[in-house]
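A further point concerns the way the authors explain their paired sequence and structure data. Showing the layout once, in full, would remove most of the difficulty. For illustration, here is how one protein appears when written out as sequence plus C-alpha cells:
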Amino acid sequence: MGSNEKVPVPAGGSIQIQSGFYEGLEVLLDRDWLVIGRGRGADMVLAEATISRAHAAIGYDGDIGGFFVQDLGSTNGTLVNGAKTERQTLKSGDEVRMGRLIIGVTLPAA
C-alpha cells in the first residue's frame, strides 16, 4: 500500500458508557478519529461537567493495526484501566475514564 493510502477502519468496534446519565449509550468506532467531549465541536458530545470540551479521542492507526485513546489536553486527564495516559493502544475490555465517565471498549477480533 502506498504511504498516502489509508487502511480502512475494521468494522465491529464500539465504545459504551458504563455509568452515569449516559449509561448504556453505545457509539460505533467507524472512523479513524472520534473526539469525545462536552463542546459542540466534539464528535460525541456529552453534557458532563467533569470532562473537557474536547477531552480525548479514540483513533485508529492502520500502521499499528489498532485503536488507541489520546488525551487532548484535558483538565482532569484520561485514564485507561486506572492509569493516567497521554496516548495508549486499546484492547477489547479496556476501561477508559474521563472525569466521572467510564467507557468500556469493544474491539473487533484481530
Summary: The two ends are 19 Å apart (CA to CA).
